[in-house]
Amino acid sequence: MTVLISFVGTSDSGKTTILTKVIPILVERGLRVAVVKHHAHGDFEIDKEGKDSWKLYNSGADVLISSPVKMAFIRRASEDSLDYVYERYLKGDYDLVITEGYSRAGKDRIVVLDRPEKLEYFKHGKILAVVCDEPVEGYPNFRRDEVERIADFIYSLVKE
After folding, report:
1. 89 pLDDT exceeds 90?
2. Which domain holds residue 14?
3. In this structure, are strands 141-142 and 3-9 parallel, antiparallel, or unpaired?
């Protein structure tokens, strides 16, 4: 069964930094992990101007780039819901799907905060834990540098 956990928090709270340290620990323990990064700020590019994939996309086609080591799908779309992305592309292929962002999707979440008083903004989903260098009452708490403990906590949720 695939477990979906959202990492949410304010901009520059440390979500990506924590994830880049926790994910290798989880992978080393044998979990298949995928991350869905929510980009709420408009367009983004993953290929370079002038490359074949860029030319094909700009000709009007959606493009899937496949190599022996990785794959990317560049598709025109209005923003799909997290549920759609999860069901269509990720569910069943991974033990753990982590979203970075999607704070309004209401999924089970680990909240990363720079200050405890910002927690109110993220209470519209089940809060599994809080990562903050100051204590936050009522939830399992981790400091940003406790990546091994954060990984243990996430691993326990996947292996329940």
Report:
1. no
2. 3-42+78-158
3. unpaired
